[in-house]
């Protein structure tokens, strides 16, 4: 599925090439391949997209209302599609960095050294939200409490108001609690969180904030404390959770409840089911 995401090149491929270059430079990571090599913006619209993509990668919560307004003005109905392309350009390189640090890259990154069969027809948001994210959500190697801890950490780091208001039912039934989740903010000092949970949170922080400089000791902790299937799922979970950056960037992350939290179930099909 990563290969399918990498192969997306809608329209003439310029915007895809542009955001892939911008995000990679911002992250100091190898860029995703592009059907069209773009050295930089060549129009006002491309300059607006490049500025938005850079801030999306640096800290999505700091995107301003003015930046959103300019993006909508330049892109109109294609805004959501382009922001989804920015999400791909921003996070697939992080996944590559994580899997390579864990020593699992060759098994999951076939597009790195192989040719890419470019897909000019598939809508990026359709592939991401209807296929990729549910496929990751269907993975079940990682225990639900660890998965929820990592999800909530990502929610806080990206300041997604909706994600912070949600609680996954399977994790709650498996021992998750507000007391435990309250320790996520300062997890290093927690007496409730296990060494395994802290290792997962350190790894998630690394992918979110310093993907080009993942600490060897953190990767070693994950390799020693998790099976390969769990570690791979953990990596993909961080990317799945980071899809909240699309909503946050567009100011569409309002919670469904006015106060407190809302319980939901991530079902066997990888779909979110609210109570």
What does this structure look like?
This is Carboxymuconolactone decarboxylase family protein. It comes from Mycobacterium terramassiliense. The structure is a single chain. The protein is mainly alpha-helical. It has 2 domains: 2-132, no CATH class; 136-274, AhpD-like (Up-down Bundle), CATH 1.20.1290. Helices cover 59% and strands 4% of the residues. It has helices at residues 2-6, 14-27, 44-59, 65-75, 79-102, 105-108, 124-137, 144-157, 161-165, 169-173, 178-181, 195-209, 216-225, 228-241, 244-249; strands spanning 166-168, 262-266, 272-274. Strand 2 and strand 3 (272-274) form a beta hairpin. The model has no long low-confidence stretch (mean pLDDT 96).
């Amino acid at each position: 599925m990563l290969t399918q995401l990498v192969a997306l090149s809608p329209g003439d491929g310029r915007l895809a090439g542009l955001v892939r270059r911008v995000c990679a430079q911002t992250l100091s990571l190898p860029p995703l391949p592009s059907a069209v090599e773009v050295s930089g913006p060549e129009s006002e619209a491309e300059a607006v997209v490049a500025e938005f993509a850079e801030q999306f990668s640096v800290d999505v919560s700091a995107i301003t209302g003015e930046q959103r307004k300019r993006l909508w003005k330049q892109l109109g109905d294609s805004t959501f599609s382009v922001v989804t392309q920015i999400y791909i350009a921003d996070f697939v390189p992080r996944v590559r960095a994580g899997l390579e640090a864990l020593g699992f890259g060759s098994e999951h990154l076939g597009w790195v050294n192989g040719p890419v069969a470019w897909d000019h027809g598939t809508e990026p948001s359709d592939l991401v939200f209807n296929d990729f994210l549910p496929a990751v959500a269907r993975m079940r190697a990682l225990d639900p409490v660890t998965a929820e801890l990592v999800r909530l950490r990502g929610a806080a780091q990206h300041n997604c108001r909706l994600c912070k208001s949600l609680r996954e039912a399977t994790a709650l039934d498996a021992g998750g609690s507000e007391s435990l989740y309250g320790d996520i903010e300062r997890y290093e000092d927690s007496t409730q969180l296990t060494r395994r949970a802290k290792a997962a949170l350190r790894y998630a922080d690394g992918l979110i904030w310093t993907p080009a400089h993942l600490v060897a000791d953190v990767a070693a902790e994950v390799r020693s404390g998790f099976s390969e299937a769990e570690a791979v799922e953990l990596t993909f979970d961080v990317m799945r959770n980071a899809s909240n950056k699309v909503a946050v960037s567009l100011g569409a992350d309002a919670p469904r409840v006015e106060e407190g939290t809302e319980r939901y179930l991530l079902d066997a099909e990888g779909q979110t089911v609210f109570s």
